[in-house]
Amino acid sequence: MFLSTFEGVIDTKGRVSVPAPFRAALGGTNRVYIWPAFDGRYCLEAGGDQLMQDYRQILARMSPHDPAREAIAHSIFGRSAELKMDDPGRIKLPEPHLKAAGITDRLVFSGAFDRFRIWNPARFSEYDAEMVSKAAESRAQLEAPFQAALSEGVLDTQTSKTAGTDR
Fold this sequence. Notes:
With 167 residues, the chain is α+β, with helices and mostly antiparallel strands. The chain has a domain at 5-119: 3-Layer(aba) Sandwich (Chemotaxis protein chec). 38% of the residues lie in helices and 25% in strands. The protein contains 6 helices and 10 strands, in the order ββαββααββαββααββ. It has helices spanning 20-25, 49-60, 67-78, 95-101, 121-137, 143-151; strands spanning 5-9, 15-17, 31-36, 44-47, 81-84, 90-92, 106-112, 115-119, 155-156, 161-162. The longest helix is centred in the last third of the chain and has 17 residues, at 121-137. It starts with a strand and ends in a 5-residue tail after the last strand.
């Protein structure tokens, strides 16, 4: 899982170090896939083999003639770059991707559960403030799943663990 936020700097050779926790979350592979976010966020989406496999499975369940499938496949697979990390964990972000995200010399890595995002720091700051506000407004949406888990006996409120797991 990709979590937390890290700042980075692009070196003189155009490389940036992927944060160590993100390298670990990639599951030991040295491959990173990136593409410009297609939802208007003006950042780069990134992930590893598992995320790409998940997208392949989702898209395979859609009709090959579905315009939404074609648009999503193009936006992810057609606009992505497969990057290889070197031994110290650095990648070289392609210029078109940097331009699409408005990244010059500094950037922010932001964890997003099954993927991470790479941001221009100013854009990330705006996004962060917006998401914190939305999360505060959305707290009530946590109530129904919590109550359902509690009534089904899969949530142990004494230990904050879900039954059958070690979380």
